[in-house]
Amino acid sequence: MTIRVRRVAAACALGAALTACGAPSAPHASRPAPSAPTAAVPSRPPTLAPGPAGLTPVFKNGPRVDGKTVALTFDADMTADEGPRAAKGEHFDNPQLIATLRTLKVPATVFMTGRWADEYPAEARAIGRDPQFEIANHSYSHYAFTGDCYGLPTVSPDRMKADVERAYTAFKKAGVPNAMPYFRFPGGCYDRQALRTLSAVGVTAVQWDVVSGDAFATDSDAVAQQVLEGVKPGSVVVMHCTRSAAPATERAVRMIVPELRKKGYRFVKVSELIGAADRHR
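Below the sequence we write its predicted structure tokens.
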């Protein structure tokens, strides 16, 4: 969003094996066959239960009483019609930001548009395969799901579900193994109709409670200050992973992380906060 804001081997017991070969039975009971190893089954990422009338649930922040945790989230925005701008050299990615998060060992959730994954498949794949990060859905086209949303073009109600599903297809094509069942509305704009329409997709809509103000900002100090003043236990901070639209973000992160750690905060992915919120319901 842009705002001006996841062989079974069978063993025979020795006595059973001898019997099968025609040898006399042993005078004592044979040992039971050892249990076959159980293949690890990936657990499903935590989600919230549907809201009233089955509407898509909306998550804004984690519990305030579950320790000092905070989730930094980064929107990798690119609208469906920005291909020509990328072809002319505009950078909608921010590899230095991702490198900084790795260096600082900060887990993070990246809300990615399908169009961004199409433009930067190697980067999408690297982020998606790194256990430090998780990729969530930010639509395919970054078109708004309501009218009058910061000037964004809009996607019609009959195309909303297909747009979200198209993004997941783009992630898979890029080599992202397990995109999360979380969705962030472009611009953060949604209404009851959008929540009803997306209920069939089975996602949890993820908003935030701290606006970094990094979109189009050039003053990294101001961005850092705004985040540091807004963070509370369980906060979700919205930032951006686009060099052209958020050039100050990487520098701001280098200031934000050590300061929050000094205050005792632990950085987590959105999935951990949603899991904690579900346990507190």
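Residues 3-41 have pLDDT under 50 and may be disordered.
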